[in-house]
C-alpha cells in the first residue's frame, strides 16, 4: 500500500487531490474543450504485431479504476489540479520505484484557458515536495517533447536540470517521439521546491 496516499496538497488557489469517478463530467468537459491544445502531447498506443491496430481507448471510469489500483499498490499518485475550486488539469506521479533507485516521473496537463498563471509550477512543486519529504523518494524526472514549450517552461522555472535527449522515447500523437529529460534529486532542493517556487514567483532569489 502507498503510505503517502490518498493526500490533498494546497498552495493558495491551487489544490492537488486524488482523481475520482465523480469528476467524470468536469474532467471530460475540460478535456473536450482542450482537445486541439492537448492532442500533440497525448500518449498513444503503438500498433501491435503485424501492424494490428491498438484496442479502443479506455473509458474515463476504466482509467480511474486503473489509476486508483496503481495508487493503492504504491506505484502512482494520480491527482487532478484544482484552481479556485475548479478542475483545470491533471498531474500524475508515475513509475514510482523503490529499492536502490527511489525515483518517479511526473506528467501533467492544464486547461489552456488558465495556462501561464503559475498554476502548474505550483502543482509540480507541491508534488515534488510530497515525493521527497513524505514518500522519501530521491529523484524526480520529467520527460517533455522538445516542441512543447509551455511544458518546458514549467520545469525551467522550477530549476530542473536538463539531462539531454531520449530519441524516440514515447509513443505520442501516433508516432515514436523524441523527449528531453529534466530531473532533480532531493539534495538539489534542500529549501524545498515549494519554497523555491514562492521565492521565484515573488521575485526573490531562493536560499540554499
Key structural traits:
208 residues; alpha+beta; Aminopeptidase; eight-stranded mixed β-sheet; 6 helices
CATH homologous superfamily identity:
Gcn5-related N-acetyltransferase (GNAT)
Q: Can you tell me the CATH topology?
A: Aminopeptidase
Strand content: 25-35%
Total E-strand runs: 8
Strand/helix succession = EEHHHEEEHEHEEH
CATH hierarchy class name: Alpha Beta
Unreliable parts: none
The tally of helices reads 6
Straight-line N-to-C gap: 34 Å
The side-by-side strand order for the widest beta sheet comes to 1-2-3-4-5-6-8-7
Q: Helix/strand-derived class?
A: alpha+beta
User: In the residues, how many domains can be counted?
Assistant: 1
| Shape by Cα distribution | globular
Brief characterization of the structure:
The chain is α+β, with helices and mostly antiparallel strands and 208 residues long. It has helices at residues 24-33, 35-39, 60-72, 119-135, 149-158, 193-201; strands spanning 9-11, 14-18, 77-83, 86-97, 103-110, 139-144, 161-172, 175-185. The protein has six helices and eight strands, in the order ββαααβββαβαββα.
Amino acid at each position: 500500500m502507498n503510505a503517502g496516499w490518498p493526500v490533498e496538497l494546497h498552495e493558495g488557489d491551487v489544490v492537488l487531490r486524488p482523481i475520482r469517478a465523480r469528476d467524470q463530467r468536469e474532467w471530460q468537459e475540460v478535456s473536450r474543450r482542450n482537445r486541439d491544445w492537448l492532442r500533440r502531447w497525448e500518449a498513444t498506443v503503438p500498433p501491435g504485431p503485424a501492424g494490428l491496430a491498438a484496442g479502443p481507448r479506455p473509458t474515463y471510469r476504466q482509467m480511474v479504476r486503473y489509476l486508483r489500483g496503481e495508487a493503492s499498490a504504491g506505484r502512482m499518485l494520480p491527482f487532478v489540479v484544482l484552481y479556485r475550486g475548479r478542475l483545470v488539469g491533471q498531474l500524475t506521479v508515475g513509475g514510482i520505484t523503490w529499492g536502490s533507485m527511489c525515483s518517479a516521473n511526473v506528467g501533467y496537463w492544464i486547461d489552456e484557458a488558465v495556462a501561464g498563471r503559475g498554476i502548474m509550477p505550483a502543482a509540480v512543486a507541491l508534488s515534488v515536495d510530497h515525493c521527497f519529504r513524505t514518500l522519501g523518494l530521491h529523484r524526480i524526472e520529467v520527460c517533455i517533447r522538445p516542441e512543447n514549450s509551455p511544458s518546458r517552461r514549467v520545469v525551467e522555472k522550477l530549476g530542473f536540470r536538463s539531462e539531454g535527449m531520449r530519441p524516440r522515447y514515447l509513443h505520442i500523437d501516433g508516432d515514436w517521439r523524441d523527449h528531453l529529460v529534466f530531473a532533480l534529486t532531493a539534495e538539489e532542493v534542500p529549501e524545498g521546491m515549494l519554497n523555491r517556487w514562492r521565492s521565484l514567483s515573488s521575485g526573490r532569489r531562493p536560499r540554499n
